[in-house]
Write a structure and sequence with these properties.
1126 residues, alpha+beta, Jelly Rolls, 7-stranded beta/alpha barrel, nine-stranded antiparallel beta sheet, six-stranded antiparallel beta sheet, 22 helices, 27% strand, elongated, binds zinc ion, metal ion binding, metal-binding, Alpha-mannosidase, hydrolase
């Protein structure tokens, strides 16, 4: 055994100083605190009700207060007096329209008065003074709470700050210059009788409190300190030492606080700072380098302002100024604060209505605190707008940004839109935006989306860097928990450890409050001081730098996972169908805009006297794009938005479009006459008629004529004429001079009506349903009655439609299981009997309150190679509650996937329910057609204004009408008119379907003209000619936005002085490489491939002799060319 010798150094025997004082005897036994009780106690400290408030911190919140209630019988004795004026007819006049002219009409008012009804406006003139003892106070606040939205103006009409009522934002800082002299001062408040989320039309609001007061800022700061420490005590994990330390210190603060001694507040704050750090009262807290750890969460302020939703556009215009000026006030006191705002339209409204506030915004944009973002005209829906519409969202948005701010946005900002089409990444890259932000997929009600930071890839292979803020909201309150979730819920931490936190009241506007900024300072102070169990948060970076940090850390995005195709929102599937009228008007507007730009381009090149009306076209596009806002076009707004704003706006747009198309055609010599007004003698001149085709391929068309022309062949009734154009000049359609070879006939055998044209044979039974559609050429039955639907095609089905919530937005899976087939026809009659068209008119009673009348028609053909389809034209009288009308086509097709037209391309979706991801797509969005094809044969369903569709098993199902009751009780009630067609075809999906869908949708090919008028048109219409692979389609022709000879509404530099330019948009419609040639009917000076902002990207060689250049396209590429004419 070895002897242990104590070491010789003194430590062995020395007693530590603590140990010297450590009592030998325990005379004061201490209990172990009970965690839950010590945690629950914390809320007592800041509660403003419950009985303890006079004994806890709230006792000191206010240092002094005066109001106008000193003498109820004599308002003049109060410190605040006010008078009010109600604007007539729910109008929303500007300050300058009310003050000073209408001041004599202002009447005295007092606290307790009520104001209304909903949507009314009340102006207040307020005269106030402070008690003499307050003159030297640095901070005097107005408290004003009427439970509704308000805006404070100075005496000159400059907006200063919003008040949102209901205890949310009820304080306004009185500028010291107003009260320092001790004299009375005057200011104004515009009261809007609505809350942040709209109002009821009969709602009245009580002016609950008005006062001036001096806040105790030390008490307020302690309140924020305690809030964050209390959250740490509640929300950190049980294994966290920081959690228990926070609880201990909070209890220590409560024990230190003395309600009889205000000075204890500062002692309490000192305790708080031992946990939160010494820098929490300034932005210096974000510069702390103590821990040297990288920032993990970037907090960015925003206030989502729905451009219309539970309020009209007219109120949004006021929400913008209220929200944004308030943010500028916060920026003045918080230098670290960065705020982003989207939607060029909103900036334009502000610039028009409040130019002074717009200048204040510009100042803060230059200082980097106010960051315009998004690059689109509005935060648009991306399911329903056409490809050209999406291009224009960016063209208008980015041009506004460049014109007014001097830069383009690099981020498409779309936090709240209801799903994202498979082409969005391509549009983004063509609009110079490599970044995309949303969070809406966190609303999925079936599957959890697996990514937060990833590459999102379009059908053409274009990608954007997408971030979905992990806190799953764009309206966070900047709570401790929001910061925590911004990393904790991040699903791509393997690749990247950054999250964005979007905070600020939103949807109805509002934005961050100073309280949120104070909380974020403390969250950061906490990690600086006690470590990083809470993610390290930073305020002061903008969105662009966030994305570039992600790129830097992920090998320029290459190490991030990729998601291909659409970001389908598993929610809000009813929005493809709700508010059918706005969808019909939108489709029509888009098609007429296309036609207008085409004919106006031709006219402006051909005629020296005609000027392309760029400013007018832009104004129409602005309104059309506005109506594509993500609650308007999807159909989720209140009634007044549609009735008072959207329908009138689009009605006017359509009238202007028709007028402008006629002006352009008149410049080309085509003047439509009121044919019915012609005398017999004059009408003889119209024996030779023609019409124009605005589509870039030759076509055949059976069109109505209002009188009997001698051109043959006509229909039996003499009301239709068969027109066709040639390959050489597809733009002029002339009547066929001979009889058509395959007339359409109708017959009746027993109870069955048969329509037949040599290619198709359609059997309609006594229920008015198609029991057989036989393709005579391909010897194939198209209708399959072997599945769930045993009755036939064009079977109307009425589904129960009672979603869990969100009436206008949602339709649920279980609705598919509760339905009734619309039964026997109440009447079937033969309407037309060939040879051009044969048709049946069928009446159905949908329910005791709704009816549908359908014309089923089949056209005669001049060649069996021509496209032949069965057309359906419906008139519906719709008066339902929570019902969904769809039409079914059971078809003899078997395939795993169906193709749905999307913007300039196709989205393929499963026709089975293998996985929950497949099931979730039980209702999807489709544009002009949906196609279900096998290798050898297929069926397309084409429509003129519908967007909801589904293909499963052997059923193709087009969604027609819904009847939700929220937020618009009257949604879709009334009369509807729409058309669709069933087109069976040999082989898989081909260009016949794409082109037939364009033709079926054409809105402007019904005007007929004297053939002699086509002289100029005949030449001019050959301006642009595409020859090449058939999958490439020339969709749009327009003049260049920056052409020097055109009047525009921007200050952007003109280009190519002395030249006119033509912009051509082409796309591959089916998904395959393509090559072709474009020939211009004028001398070419230069050709460029451009982006959708019409910025030149590369110069293209051309053949000067032929005025021709070659093009090449990737699968699903959207290509744009700018041709500079000599
Ligand atoms: Zn929204």
């Amino acid at each position: 055994m070895r002897e242990v010798t104590p070491p010789l150094h003194s430590g062995w025997t020395m007693v530590h100083p603590d140990e010297q004082t450590y009592p030998q005897l325990n005379k004061d036994p201490q209990f172990k605190p009970v965690d839950s009780i010590y945690e629950n106690r914390l809320k007592q400290f800041t509660n403003t009700s419950g009985g303890y408030e006079d004994l806890q911190l709230p006792k000191f919140y206010v240092k002094g207060k005066v109001d106008n209630q000193k003498d109820e019988n004599d308002l003049s004795k109060g410190y605040i007096q006010f008078t009010t004026y109600t604007t007539p007819n729910l109008s929303r006049p500007l300050f300058k329209e009310v003050i000073p002219d209408l001041l004599p009409e202002f009447k005295p008012a007092r606290v307790g008065d009520s104001f209304g009804p909903g949507w009314s406006t009340h102006w207040f003139e307020i005269k106030a003074k402070v008690p003499d003892s307050w003159n030297k106070e640095k901070l005097v606040l107005l408290n004003w709470d009427a439970g509704n939205e308000g805006l404070v103006y100075d005496k000159n009409g400059l907006p200063l700050q919003a008040l949102t009522g209901s205890s949310e934002r009820t304080e306004f800082t009185i500028p010291p210059s107003w009260y320092e002299s001790g004299k009375e001062f005057t200011f104004y408040i515009e009261m809007a009788c609505n809350g942040m989320f709209g109002t009821g039309s009969g709602t009245y609001y009580t002016l609950g409190s008005v006062s001036l007061f001096i806040p105790n800022m030390d008490a307020r700061n302690l309140y924020y300190d305690f809030w964050i420490m209390g959250d740490a005590a509640r929300e950190l994990s049980v294994s966290s030492g920081q959690k228990h330390k926070a609880r201990e210190l909070c209890n220590k603060i409560m024990n230190t606080f003395d309600p009889e001694d205000e000075s204890t507040i500062l002692k309490c704050r000192e305790i708080a700072k031992s946990y939160l750090g010494k820098d929490i009262d300034s932005d210096a807290v974000f510069d702390d380098k103590t821990n040297q750890l990288p920032t993990q969460v970037y907090a960015v302020g925003n206030c989502h302002i729905d451009t219309a939703w539970l309020w009209p556009f007219a109120e949004t215009k006021r929400k913008i100024v209220r929200s944004w000026i308030t943010q500028i006030r916060i920026m003045e006191n918080y230098p670290e604060y960065v705020f982003v705002a989207s939607q060029a339209q909103q900036f334009k409204w502000l610039k028009t209505m409040h130019p002074d506030t717009f200048d204040e915004v510009l100042q803060k944009v230059h200082e980097g605190q106010f960051v315009p973002i998004g690059g689109s005209w509005v935060e648009n829906d991306t399911n329903i707008p056409s490809g050209e519409s999406l291009s224009r969202q960016f063209l208008l948005g980015q041009r506004f940004f460049q014109d007014n701010f001097g830069f383009k946005s690099d981020t498409f900002w779309l936090p709240d839109t209801f799903g994202y089409s498979s082409q969005i990444p391509q549009f983004c890259r063509l609009a110079e935006m490599p970044n995309f932000l949303t969070q809406k997929l966190s609303w999925n009600n079936i599957n959890t989306f697996p990514e937060n930071t990833f590459n999102w890839v379009a059908i053409d292979g274009s990608q954007v860097l997408c971030h979905m803020p992990p806190a799953n909201t764009y309206t966070a309150s900047a709570h401790f928990g929001d910061v925590k979730r911004s990393l904790q819920q991040h699903k791509n931490l393997y690749n990247d450890q950054h999250g964005l936190l979007l905070y600020g009241h939103g949807d109805g506007g509002g934005g961050p409050t100073t309280e949120m900024l104070e909380k974020l300072r403390r969250c950061r102070g906490l990690t600086n001081t006690v470590g990083s169990e809470l993610p390290i948060v930073k305020v002061g970076e903008n969105i662009s730098s966030f994305y570039s940090k992600v790129r830097k850390g992920t090998d320029n995005g290459k190490s991030l996972p990729a998601w291909n195709g659409e970001l389908y929102l598993e929610f809000h599937r009813g929005t493809y169908t709700s508010q059918a009228k706005v969808k019909y008007m939108m489709r029509t507007s888009e098609l007429l805009l296309r036609d207008l730009e085409y004919v106006a381009t031709v006219a402006s090149i051909q005629s020296d006297s005609y000027v392309y009306p760029l400013d007018k076209i832009t104004a129409i596009w602005e309104d059309v794009c506005l109506c594509q806002f993500h609650d308007v076009l999807p159909g989720s707004c209140i009634e007044i938005v549609y009735r008072d704003e959207v329908w009138p706006m689009l009605t006017k747009a359509l009238a202007n479009l028709r007028g402008l198309i006629n002006e352009a055609l008149e410049a080309l010599g085509l003047k439509e006459k009121g044919l019915e007004a012609l005398s017999l003698e004059e009408s003889a001149k119209y024996d030779q008629v023609a019409t124009l085709n605005t589509l870039p391929w030759d076509r055949k068309l059976i069109m109505p004529v209002p009188y009997e022309v001698s051109a043959k062949p006509l229909n039996a009734q003499g009301n239709l004429v068969y027109m066709e154009s040639t390959k050489e000049n597809p733009t002029i359609l002339k009547p066929l001079s001979s009889k058509i070879k395959h007339p359409a006939a109708v017959s009746k055998i027993d109870d069955v009506h048969i329509l037949e044209n040599g290619k198709l044979k359609v059997s309609v039974d006594k229920n008015g349903v198609i029991t057989s559609l036989y393709d005579l050429v391909n010897d194939r039955e198209v209708v399959d009655l072997g599945g769930k639907n045993e009755s036939g095609a064009n079977q109307y089905v009425i589904f129960d439609d009672q979603p869990l919530s969100y009436g206008a937005w949602d339709t649920e899976l279980y609705s598919l299981e509760k339905y009734k087939y619309v039964g026997g026809a109440s009447k079937i009659e033969i309407l037309e009997e060939g040879p051009l068209r044969s048709s049946l008119k069928i009446q159905h009673q949908i329910s005791s309150t709704s009816t549908i009348s359908t014309i089923i028609s089949l056209d005669g053909l001049n060649s069996l190679d021509d496209v032949s389809f069965v057309a359906f034209e419906c008139e519906v009288d719709w008066n339902e509650k929570y019902k969904f009308l769809k039409v079914e086509f059971p078809v003899s097709i078997t395939a795993d996937y169906a193709s749905y037209e999307t913007q300039f391309g196709l989205t393929k979706r499963p026709t089975h329910f293998n996985t929950s991801w497949d099931t979730a797509k039980f209702e999807v969005c489709s544009h002009k057609f949906a196609d279900y094809s096998e290798y050898s044969y297929g069926v397309s369903v084409i429509n003129d204004s519908k967007y909801g569709f589904a293909v499963h098993g052997n059923l193709m199902r087009l969604s027609l009408l819904r009847a939700p009751k929220y937020p618009d009780q009257t949604a879709d009630i009334g009369k509807h008119h729409f058309k669709y067609a069933l087109y069976p075809h040999k082989g898989s999906l081909g260009m016949d379907t794409v082109k037939t869908a364009w033709e079926f949708n054409s809105r402007s090919s019904t005007a007929i003209y004297e053939i002699g008028q086509f002289g100029i048109w005949s030449e001019a219409s050959q301006l642009v000619k595409y020859e090449g692979d058939s999958n490439i389609l020339l969709s749009n022709i327009k003049r260049g936005e920056d052409d020097a000879d055109l009047k525009s509404n921007t200050k952007l530099a003109k280009k190519f002085s002395g030249h006119k330019t033509i912009v051509l948009r082409l796309y591959d419609a089916l998904g395959g490489k393509g090559k072709g040639k474009i020939t211009i009917g004028a001398d070419i000076h230069q050709v460029f491939k451009v982006n959708i902002l019409e910025e030149e990207k590369e110069e293209v060689e051309f053949d000067a002799k032929k005025n021709q250049f070659s093009i090449e396209s990737r699968a699903f590429e959207i290509s744009t060319y700018k041709v500079v004419l000599a």
